[in-house]
Amino acid sequence: MNTGTAWTARFATVVFDVDSTIASIEGIDWLAERRSAEVAAQCIALTSRAMAGEIPFEEVYTHRLELIRPTQVDLDALAEAYLASVAPRAAQLIKGLHAVGTTVLLVSGGLHAAIEPLARLLDVPAQHVHAVRVSANAHGEFVFLDGAQPLATQQGKPRVISQLDLPRPTVMIGDGATDAAARGVVDQFIAYTGAARRESVVAVADAVAEDFVDLVPLLLAIAEPDEEDR
Ligand SMILES: [Mg+2]
């Protein structure tokens, strides 16, 4: 008798958002809080309105960077904060997805430099990590986008995902309006509410997950036993 559960993939590709999904923090807001209470209040208001779909993401992205003026030290501290705030059982689920041959991507509107160590922890290869690259001014403050950065825009996720020619079926998992915007280019959209529940996002989702335990049956199925096990 087969005692171990054998799993099979429901999707060939799983795309995860990072902020308020894989990790419980919002990276840009976290940097703002590190800067000052006043900067934090300004940035949280901008982020919240953008994620709720009230104002275009691209309008607030560089404005927030200019308010925060993050340095390399700040980005390194944010990387540590991401590692400390990984959602319970996220690493186990991603390991399980890799084990059944699922392609796992992180597609984020967050800062690439701060997300890289998190991706390494989760064994997500560098070519499957897509986020926003920024560059520094003469004072070492990362206030500029490093060329065209589609993920700093409202429609960045559908644009990036559609250009990747990913194995199908595909599923996007995230908490925000920029994740829900990917619905047209993936086969399913799952609203993740473990860190933040946004009703406008839940309303358009094919399924809702409160935590990574909820995600297991949505992403994996129990394999039919082989003939010899029957
Ligand atoms: Mg998010």
Offer a quick outline of the entry.
By secondary structure, the chain is an alpha/beta fold. It is built from 10 helices and 10 strands.
Regions with little confidence, pLDDT below 50 for 5+ residues = none
Order of helices and strands: EEHHHHHEHEEEHEHEHEHE
CA-to-CA gap between the ends?
Answer: 8 Å
Shape: globular
The CATH architecture classification is 3-Layer(aba) Sandwich
- If you compute it from the alpha carbons, what radius of gyration comes out, rounded to the nearest whole angstrom? 18 Å
Percent of sequence in beta strands: 15-25%
Number of strands: 10
Number of H/I helices:
10
Helicity range of the residues?
40-55%
**Distinct ligands:** magnesium ion
Query: Which fold does the CATH topology refer to?
Result: Rossmann fold
Kindly state the mean pLDDT as a whole number? 93
The CATH homologous superfamily is termed HAD superfamily/HAD-like
What does the largest sheet look like? 6 strands, parallel
* Strand neighbour order, sheet with most strands: 4-3-2-7-8-9
Please identify the structural class as seen in this structure.
alpha/beta
Q: How many domain regions?
A: 1
CATH class: Alpha Beta
